[in-house]
Amino acid sequence: xxxxxxxxxxxxxxxxxxxxLYLELVFxxxxxxxxILPSFEPFFIEYDVTEKSICSIELTFQAPLTQNDGxxxxxxxxxxxxENFRFYEGEDYYTTTIWNEFDDGLWKMxxxxxxxxxxxxxxxxxxxxxxxxxxxxxxxxxxxxxxxHTILIHASVIAKSGEGYAFLGKSGTxxxxxxxxxxDHIQGAQLLNDDNPAVRLENDGxxxxxxxxxxGKTSCYKxxxxxxxxxxxLKQSSYNHLAEQRGTAAFVCLLPSCTAIRWNNRLFTAMxxxxxxxxxxxxxxxxxxxxxxxxALLCYHEILKIDKQTVQNSGYQEVTGxx
Amino acid sequence: xxxxxxxxxxxxxDDHIIVDPGQDMVDMSKVFTLNDSAxxxxxxLAGQEFTRETMVNLLIERHDLPYKQAEEDINKLVEVLxxxxxxxxxxxxG
Lengths: 323, 94
Description:
The complex is a heterodimer of chains A (323) and B (94). Chain A is of the alpha+beta class and 323 residues long. Chain A contains 7 helices and 17 strands. In chain A, strands 9, 10, 11, 12, 13, 14, 15, 16 and 17 form a 9-stranded mixed beta sheet that branches. With 94 residues, chain B is α+β, with helices and mostly antiparallel strands. Chain B has a single domain, classed as Orthogonal Bundle (Arc Repressor Mutant, subunit A), CATH 1.10.10. Chain B is built from 3 helices and 3 strands. Chain B has a 3-stranded antiparallel beta sheet. In chain B, α2 (52-63) crosses α3 (67-83). The A-B interface holds A 73-77, 246-248, 250-252, 255, 262-263, 265, 268-269, 272-273, 276, 279-280 and B 6, 8, 10-15, 17, 19, 21-23, 25, 27, 29, 31, 33.
């Protein structure tokens, strides 16, 4: 009996690898890993990891030490949680709270300023634990990864012939719909992620896009990366047309889809640095489109044309440089 | 005066930009574009206290302008920087 209690109180540890970065979770032994975060299973690492995790999160049933320790209210509106969301800044930490209608629980997460360490205070109630929990882990990881040349973006992503195409746009613009059109009409197209992929600038100088444990309403949790070919910002239009974006226009096209908190200069600057580097390596376009087959075909073929020009241009520079 | 230290001049394609993330609850983030001269001046002045005189002299040195014209250009630029809150308000007025 005594043994049993002791086993239950020793916390368990799970390590995940998302976008090539380690995420560590410590949780009460009474919880089952695969049950609390099912969408994370493809990212679970079996072996012992010697490399340091960039984001460690402790889950606890203990109540927060003090109740009103939130600090200054920075935001009270989120796309996913609407008005049930709060984000506070204290002296040494941020506090994120969400009120979950399904379990009538107030979820709370305290994070260090760089989001490398967080504590999530679990609502003592089994319902929809993964819904709120998965989202809070995304908030922490999404900020912590910024210091590692990685950005969680809001996008639906298609992989085709080993290259990624990320569709951007405000909620309701038709990102998922456009991905469906690629799946239906372009041979070999596969859905990589439908809501929150990660984009990473790697040591080889290339930009890759990764599937993650977060994919909105679509169950698509692929632990796969492909080289990112293009960003496509979608705009509803009466006809289909694609325009390449450069310079300021490209930056402004990309920035709203990146998830850095505006109030932390270190994280925001790190994110902007990565965006700046990405702009010079990935095709950025805007697609005015109808929700039809031609929109998908035009988008795909126009991007291939731009890619061909880019390859030719860089080839020319190399030749002249050698002379 | 002094340029705000939290701002970074970025080069994207042929453009020079400054991103100022809004700090209010409603996102009013702004992106400013600078022409080549303004971007060059920004780089010379970043991280230090300076006066209009310093700016005018820098501009003359680079573009070989008459003093009067350089002064006018700088006055316009300072006005734009002030209006958009890109200068450090706590730094000494110069």
